Fold:
Amino acid sequence: MEKLYGLIGEKLGHTYSPVIHQKIMQELNIDGHYGLFQVKRDNLPHVVSGLKALGYDGANVTIPYKTDIIKFLDCLSPEAKKIGAVNVVAIDREGMAAGYNTDYHGFGMMLKNANIKIQGENVAILGTGGASKAVSQYLRDNGIKNITFITRDFAAAKHKFPQDEVITYEQLNKLRGCSTIINATPVGMYPGIQAMPIEKKYLMNFSQAVDLIYNPSETLFIKQAKERGLKYTNGLYMLIAQAVKSQEIWNETEIPEDVTENILSFLKQEVL
Structure:
């Protein structure tokens, strides 16, 4: 019987997820389909029940619904509860919808692949949405020294991350002592590829740049970091690694690590 999966988000014209998941299922000999669900915010309360009614086995969740989806789920995995954001929904045979977070795993795999060192470092994160929750939790669990969030809404960010330093974009000129800057916003994502989350002059204060965006593969943020000699990575490896982990959850199996590398090579040759 064909397995049914999909991606829930607001704007999905940029995504490679269907290609990645079809490739994973091909590698694992799984008969399945992966669709796209562009959902308006007003319709979000009906999405999970709709997936259940249609017999879907699971779905990924992307911007801007990684936290909002939680209230419509039946239960959360321990890591999703700890992080406070969900990017994977698994629906079991009894129709129970459980939320998981594989962004955490994908982010760690991406740092390892790009040789980005964060242990004992000070890190700045642009944005305070669902993706930043998984990122910051991974950093805390892996020996980060200090996290500074840069936001447009100081009060909301401080409420969300009370243990961390929070500054506004207007205060960026005062930020010192951070080795790594992480873009966890959608600024610079296709089709808005001429946008950059911060002024390029601020990149000189860092030695490592991470952009969670994967389309385009070289955002203006990454292009400017590259030109200034920073160690850098985009979000493609994270996307693939979290997708592989999603399939492990949905199919209750372990997938060999070389599958991630195979898909990365395939995308670089056939898609990018």
Residues 3-101+237-270 form a domain with the Rossmann fold fold (CATH 3.40.50.10860). The chain has a mean pLDDT of 95. The first strand starts at residue 3 and ends at 9. DSSP finds nine helices and twelve strands in the chain.
